[in-house]
Amino acid sequence: MGRSLKKGPFVDEHLMKKVEAAQGSDKKVVIKTWSRRSTIFPNFVGQTIAVYD
Predict the structure, then answer these.
(1) d(CA 35, CA 38)
(2) What integer pLDDT is reported at residue 21 of this predicted model?
(3) Which pLDDT value is given to residue 1?
(4) What is the pLDDT of residues 10-43, one digit of tens each?
(5) Is residue 17 one of the residues assigned to a domain?
(6) CB–CB of 10/17 below 8 Å?
(7) Spatial contact of 43 and 23, defined as CB atoms under 8 Å apart
(8) Structural domain total, the chain
(9) Cβ distance 11 to 39 under 8 Å?
């Protein structure tokens, strides 16, 4: 089921902080998260995200 257009996309704040920190470093790291409800934003492209159940 999709999210309402009037609400806009959603991403957990802790996931966004992890992605921004990974983009700032030169090393390739796997970002681990439990956030299955987050939308994939364009700045997530190129990152490896491991989603736990």
Answers:
(1) 6
(2) 94
(3) 63
(4) 999 999 999 999 998 888 899 999 999 999 999 9
(5) yes
(6) no
(7) yes
(8) 1
(9) yes
Distance separating alpha carbons of residues 19 and 14, to the nearest angstrom: 9
Instruction: Report pTM.
Output: 0.77
Whether the pLDDT of residue 52 is over 90: the answer is no
Residue at 3 is within a domain: no
DSSP state at residue 43: G
Indicate whether 4 belongs to any domain: no
Residue 2 belongs to a domain: no
For tokens 């920190």, name the residue.
21
pLDDT at 2 over 90: no
Name the residue among 47, 41, 40, 42 with its Cα closest to residue 23. 47
Domain housing 29: 13-51
* Phi, psi (degrees; rounded to nearest 5) at 23: -70, -30
